[in-house]
Design a protein that fits this description.
six-stranded parallel sheet; binds nicotinamide-adenine-dinucleotide; 2 domains; nine-stranded mixed sheet; Dihydrodipicolinate Reductase, domain 2; 17 strands
């Protein structure tokens, strides 16, 4: 792979700043801390961390709104910091006492619900700096840009032209990931793409090829495999005497009223693309690659909720020969999204089960009493942090990544195969042909 465009790209960061961001990873920041981070970010921007803001960004500043918000945040933080006897990190950077370390400057494309949350995840990363935001919804772009004190755009190509970023985080509707990623790669930007990587394998291949061609790195955000439960299941499967896994069942029944782009197959892909995708990746993480897929859809009972299936059942055969099944439906009030997706695993001489309701992992060897481990939590926070720090380490120091575009592609392959199977009534073998037709057009 070609050398990172970051090779000579360092900015000065103060120890105080690093400590404040690392501290923020361990507690919920108060207003004062948030203002401090924002103030330092603004000072960096003033020193020229970005090239030129978009016409929209200039307009926002010219009408006063943007500059007022930014100025207020900056001066409050400086004043309050100084009242507490805490120096301003950027002043120190100018006057000495600094350490120099590389920083990954990232721009966010997609200022919706998860894009907004992604800014908080980036804040927790000592090596990553948010430097711009884009969203086709001008109001959302402006709101998040102003809130984070960074320039904003309404078009990702304009951001790529004008924002001095090393990487982009793609946090938009699934149907748009391909074009944004291909453009970002062509512009020499590394890519963190939220799951689901894209809607078709053809799009995923385009993204992987674009990254390879232009020598940039591409990570896909399948965080579930890093949550405590996934690690605990993996540990349990390693129990002496259990033998090989033979079969797995994942029950993804929960109650949730879906809104926004998730309701439309053309933007989202289908129920599996949002409610099953994390578990498809976790299954790969635990049991290896899938060899074939067979799927059926349940009756469409609630057209007012979405234009996708209300229930889907997927049978998987892994390359190891083990079999698996995954059922998903969102009309099951006995569980939430958080308490769904329990695992039952049959092994040669026993079994492992994960119950997300009480966070227990039970390992049961034949002729022995069961061993039960209760997790303290199954919070995604550590998983998000691990993804993001791995992305920074991959780009900045070429350390091995925890997830790549290939992981995203393999997942989409399984999803597309499931819908293809449901449309044709046949088992679908993997890998899929790159130009395999979109199965959705055949689904009612
Ligand atoms: N890893 C996780 O735990 C997790 C959780 C939630 C969402 N996500 C993922 O995050 C992504 C976004 O989900 P969300 O819940 O924030 O959706 P959302 O609808 O709240 O936000 C999507 C945003 O993208 C913008 N957008 C659409 N097309 C665009 C384009 N071409 N250029 C720029 N902006 C564009 C929309 O205007 C919207 O503001 C999806 O890929 C989703 O699967 C991941």
């Amino acid at each position: 792979m070609a050398p990172s465009p970051l090779a000579n790209n360092h900015i000065l960061r103060t120890r105080e700043h690093e400590e404040s961001k690392s501290a923020a990873a361990h507690h919920v920041p108060g207003e004062l801390e948030k203002l401090a981070v924002r103030g330092r970010r603004l000072a960096r921007l003033c020193r020229g961390c970005h090239r030129s803001p978009s016409p929209l960004g200039i307009a926002a500043t010219a009408d006063g709104a943007g500059s007022r918000i930014l100025h207020a945040a900056s001066s409050r933080s400086d004043a309050e910091l100084s009242a507490r006897g805490v120096g301003n990190g950027d002043d120190q950077a100018v006057s000495g006492g600094v350490s120099e370390s590389p920083c990954l400057r990232i721009a966010l494309v997609g200022a919706g619900g998860f894009g907004t949350y992604t800014c908080e995840l980036i804040d927790r990363q000592p090596e990553i700096e948010l430097v711009g935001v884009a969203d086709t919804d001008a109001g959302k772009a402006q709101r998040l840009g102003n809130d984070r004190g960074v320039p904003f755009w309404t078009e990702h190509r304009a951001l790529l032209d004008e924002c001095d970023c090393d990487a982009v985080a793609i946090v938009t509707t699934h149907s748009t990931h391909r074009d944004i990623a291909v453009d970002a790669a062509a512009a020499g930007r590394h890519i963190f793409c939220e799951k689901t990587m894209a809607i078709t394998v053809a799009d995923c291949h385009d993204m992987v090829e674009a990254a390879d061609t232009h020598g940039v790195k591409l990570m896909v955000g399948h965080k579930r495999r890093f949550r405590p439960a996934s690690a605990a299941i993996r540990r349990a499967l390693g129990t002496d005497g259990l033998g090989r896994p033979l079969a797995v069942n994942v029950r993804g029944f929960f109650g949730r009223r879906i809104t926004g782009f998730w309701r439309e197959r053309s933007l989202c892909g289908g129920l599996l693309y949002w409610a099953g995708v994390h578990d498809v990746d976790t299954l790969r993480y635990l049991f290896g690659e899938v060899a074939s897929v067979y799927a059926v859809l349940g009756p469409k009972a609630r057209p007012e909720v979405s234009d996708q299936e209300d229930a889907i059942s997927v049978a998987l055969t892994f390359q190891s020969g083990m079999v698996g099944s995954l059922q998903v439906s969102t009309f099951y009030p006995m569980a939430t999204y958080q308490t769904a997706f329990g695992f039952d695993i049959v092994c040669e001489r026993g079994g492992v089960s994960y119950n997300p309701h009480d966070l227990t992992i039970t390992t049961h060897l034949e002729d022995q009493p069961p061993g039960v481990v209760r997790l303290e939590h199954n919070s995604p926070d550590g998983a998000y942090d691990r993804e993001w720090s791995s992305f920074a380490a991959w780009v900045l120091r070429d350390e091995a990544p925890v997830l790549t575009g290939q992981d995203g592609l393999r997942c989409v392959e399984i999803l597309q195969a499931a819908y293809l199977s449901a449309a044709t009534g046949t088992r679908v073998d993997l890998p899929l042909d790159r130009n395999e037709r979109r199965p959705f057009d055949d689904l009612s």
